[in-house]
Amino acid sequence: MTSTPATRIPFLFMLMLALTGIGNVGQAQVTPGFGVSDLGGSVTYLGTSLAFGPDDRLYVAQQDGIIQVYTIVRLGANNYIVTDTETITAINDILNHDDDGTPNPGVDYRQITGIAVYGDSANPVIYVTSSDPRIGAGPLGQDLDLDTNSGVISTLTWDGSSWVRQDLVRGLPRSEENHSLNGLVLDTATNLLYVCAGGNTNAGARSNNFALAQEYAYAAAILTVDLDNLGSLPYDLPTLDDEDRFGTTDLNDPFGGNNGKNQAVLEVGGPVQVYASGFRNPYDIIIAQNGKLYSWDNGPNAGWGGPPTTCADTVVEGGPTHTDGLHHIPGPGYYAGHPNVIRGNRNNTFNASNPQSPVPPALENPVECTYLIPGVEDATITLYTASSNGLAEYTASNFDSAMTGHLLCAAFDGHILEVELDSAGTGLGPAGQSSFASGFGSVPLDVIAVGDDGPFPGTVWTANIFGAAGVSVFEPNDYDGGSGGPCDFTSPTGDEDMDGYTNADEIDNGTNPCSGADKPHDYDGDLVSDLNDPDDDNDGIPDTADALALDSLNGAGTFMPIDYDWEPGDPSRGGFFDLGFFGMMNNGSSDYLDQYNPADITAGGTAGLFTIDNMTEASSFGPSGLQDNAFQMGINVDTVTRPFVLQTRIRSPFSGETPVDFQNMGFYFGTGDMDNYFKLVVHSNGGAGGIEVIREVGGSVAPAPTSLIYGAPVVGATFVDLYLTVDPVAGTVQPSYSINGGFQSNLGDPRTYPMAWTDSIVHLGIIGTSFGPGEEFPATWDYIKAEPLGPVPSASLNINAGNFIGSDAIATGSWVLTNTSSNAGNITQVVIDLSS
Predict the structure, then answer these.
(1) pTM here?
(2) Are 40 and 81 in contact (CB under 8 A)?
């Protein structure tokens, strides 16, 4: 069953107490605490990596291939501004190619996901990883012909007047999906560069969501580059003899991976080596002060592909979610647990006319055929449920060195994690893992910590991929002799860190009452956390009775067409996970926080999917339901008289496994409660697979033919589209479906529904259950839509005061003009006649 935030909080807070040295609750001691602010004047967009250079400037990389270099001044406590910006575009001068090696100058920028800055103040040197910026694969398994050999390691050196780009290594792998070369770190003593190389698969085997790509010889690993032995630059990795290109020296080598036929070949004794294998997508790597290497690896996502069952190169769909893990990398040959059967078995060859393995016999590594479950079978130090990426070590001596040696990690759920290591540096210390910062309004992708000798000593900085700020700054309370003294949060109503939340509220939420950088989640921003606020959208309806607990307008401000596919770069949708859902199917007594587990959700991201990793058996079936994970939105249909179509897509139903009991997943519309809805779901149907139609009115499920299961070949499908065509005048709904984009099939005749359901606000949401009890399973939605049939009017005017002119019509926000044109056309004139 779903565990609620309330059940998790005490454990998290005990970790935080041990970490910060607070001891018993309320005890006054010197305690680490930080303020948080946005970097004023930053122009960073889609920040991916950052570093302070030897010239004390902040270098921030963007996903679009641009590096911004900021001169920064501190105006006062938690007040930092950019006084000068230099923009470096030299990486975007690298020529992109298609996967057959053909140059493609039309793709005129690069993806940067890792930078590190060395050199001296007069001549800084930026080490950069970049790759083809196209992101394919995903729900439809799209192969965008991106260059899977596009990984390049470059330097940018300031020669006194300009930045000079030198490519060091070319031809490294880049996945069809989003994994690529990432973070890097230079061991200045040995001149070895350690580089994170993402994998081409979800869990080791090929799968549709990764465009059926195989792992490559240099993929899914921590690589080393021996800078002293590269020879003439750039060093182009040798590749296989591609049967699709003439001659043994293929045109445009080393570019154009050609789906593995032209991938780079491992070299015994070469300057580029696989140092540690088994990393699915390591985003960052550090050399800590103890001399040890650490990296945090991204675990696989449910339904995106499974691990190999043998050492053969095969397709395995489905697969479960496994959490991200922090690894200590003790030395060469370490295996982190993500399979690469190309390195594991030389019998996996490429090029049918001239079969070749990219792995010489001496480098074959059979251990890489076996998947190791993070935290169970591998050697991870600690785990975290959200995507864990940028990694840093806090080396400053602030707070009497209470945090020195702790690791910080940027997580995709808006947290920065803090990890205390044991004295050996190979396991967790007494405080373990805790939250360093949260609730600061942005999603960090990278994090750095400034040491005692750096600019702004003791501060922590993040590059944010999404959110309010491009760069966030965390300043220690004792900065420059500030008030970093004892923290006394004895008073429940007090606010020791002065962040607006009471000590008691922070303790309840497991955030640090001594640090303003660590705030509880507060949807409406009224300085009472969601956990303790009985009305999180301030609409006067208690959360326990509010079907749209995060929408103060309760759907009145949302109009068709709705077309949410959750792709990267889409506009903000608001609500849960910024996906456009504002409530949960309501039973009148459950708080929405108790109806889902954030740790089980993979939302949006690069794949543009919404996955519930563990669909519980809690169900809306019958009166007094206890449905979990039924996220919903409200749509204003007050003036809608035309039929409209509701649609969703289910990806890889049952994740390639044979379904059991009554497992199902799909969507519904209704009044927003658990007693009145019309549901259409992909159903296990006794293991054979099918589509179920259910209408529940007043807590009673209607008998057949209104509610029944139809046989349909959904098991093993790549995707299933579900449709509900609603006629609000006739009060009927026609359910239908299609499989893998094929013919749309009706499920019987139109059914009736209570017309009051579509009189004003219709509630549309996703739903599923393992009811039976069945085994919990992952379910994935690709999009959700609500679109009227026929031409769409260019605009609609809504007045919240019941759609009539009255005294309330002058209230702030009472008038809403919505552009509903299908092509986002401009509204050039609006005429409002108030004379009547």
Answers:
(1) 0.86
(2) yes
